[in-house]
């Protein structure tokens, strides 16, 4: 399917620019040969294969679990609001209903009945079909919807893997560079962080846009939005630190470039920890009692005054032929008994599969490549500063590392 998905990604049409549901949905509703003559027959034939059925269920369940984790994270952040349960409860119920599907036959029955259970979805798809063909498409949509959704499951997974690969290739750094070239600016000469790490530095021309559904920065000289992968709550805390003068230099990796950000309706719900940093051991390791392979390594360099957090997971993330991990690195200074974060960055570390297997038991094994996603310099951020109800350092780790229990255990251990 990979070649078909790549062909879909390269697909272009005048009408697709006005189509809001993406290329995969467009080739389905357009009855394009890519879908009708290539992908559809492949799915229909493959569904008779037990191995393919297992792949479908694995990808389907993984997608549901990721969706549930995202909802739970939002719910936890807004749990104190009296309406939080009413808002997030129904979303979780729907995901749990889908997670109850355990067999391929159950999944196919669910998909075949979906448009009857949710007729509004059929109406939306049919309206788009009519716009493309100037005729009704209910029969075609109903007949092929289940296989379309199976294709969606694998296409979404393909896009996720490709997105990570593009991130490793720093694809949008080249786009950013071209945007600045258009206005006569050599960004590599103007921005030392871009020249060295392909990160765009915040400056007097760049404003942060921290919206509900998008986090971007916008250079007034260009007028386009540069998307950054920093969770909303963390970005809010970063903005507060900037306002307080505790953070003066920060730079971000750009993941996407657009003229606008989604105009979504805003939907809001209307004893500090003292870290004895200098006394921390050189190496700490926390592991899950349920899954020993899930662990958090903390390396403390007392001479360089630095801390490095790296998370290793049983269900590790793959990008191409490599394994990637998340690393938070910080440097600190002290004044008396008070400690301050002077530098902080988030990195993606890239390992070969063999070196990753060695890294599971040996902290000295290094990845063959690393990509920074954001970087803070020349700051004086107190280790014990509490913003929006949480320690800033906890927010950093919680935003990028997956194993919440290990993070909380670490903070309990150093209380």
Question: How would you describe this protein?
Answer:
The chain has about 425 residues and is an alpha+beta fold. It has 3 domains: about 1-170, no CATH class; about 180-260, no CATH class; about 275-415, no CATH class. Helix content is about 45%, strand content about 20%. It contains 15 helices and 16 strands. The strands form 3 sheets. Strands 1, 5, 7, 8, 9, 10, 11, 12, 13 and 14 form a 10-stranded antiparallel β-sheet that branches. The protein has a 4-stranded antiparallel β-sheet with strand order 2-3-4-6, covered by helices on one side. A hairpin with a 5-residue loop joins strand 3 and strand 4 (about 225). Helix 2 runs antiparallel to helix 8, helix 4 (about 50-75) packs antiparallel against helix 5 (about 85-100) and helix 4 crosses helix 8 (about 140-170). The radius of gyration is 24 Å and the shape is globular. The termini are far apart. About 25% of the residues are buried. The model is unreliable at about 265-275 (pLDDT under 50).
